[in-house]
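Ticket #4471: structure export looks truncated?
Reporter: QA, pipeline team
Priority: medium

Steps to reproduce: submit the single chain below to the structure queue and open the exported record.
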Amino acid sequence: MNSASNLKVVIVLPVTLSTELDDDEVAEVERTRILRLALLEAGYNVVATLPGDAFLPERIAQIQPDMIVVDAESQGRDILEHVVIATRDERRPIVLFSDEKDTSHVRRAIAAGVSAYVVAGIPSESIKPVIEVALARFEHEEKLRAELADARTQLEERKIIDRAKGLLMARQGLTEPEAYARLRKAAMDKGVRLSEIAQRLIDAADLLG
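Actual output as written to the record:
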């Protein structure tokens, strides 16, 4: 895990369209200022503060932050959609701070990729533990994703190898161990994975009919 000073953090905040801020928008600006100061005081490297608009994915791709902190307040669902799109191809831990009392969409936010959803506003005195827990959860989930993807790959490869063994057994009268040994030797001779040589055999059999 990166140390706080090495962690590049981007803050995403609601889009303000008006030139003259109303009381709610002034409060949002102050919230973002407090959040940024809390992150800096905790030692995090805040590299940018970005509006949660349609251009967010492009900006995230350019900056390449390690973590995204969302100051959503009452617009959590709208901003979250842009953040999810921005991290769809390259996943990053997301921490969302909100004062919204309606928590009905928290479950959906977590499912969409939010690592931590803090409903009680910005805990300036405990922001570092919040970030560290979010990072740990993200890293744990990424490990599980990798393990699941690896298991699926192994299952698919096993199916391919079994099918190739079946072809050799049916067409050349080999036993299963003999068919496996034939595939393994061919893979070793050509310096490729066993599943790859099996797939080549299947493709050739499909081509010849």
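Status: closed, not a bug. The export was complete when the record was re-opened. Leaving a note from the reviewer for reference: The longest strand covers residues 45-51.
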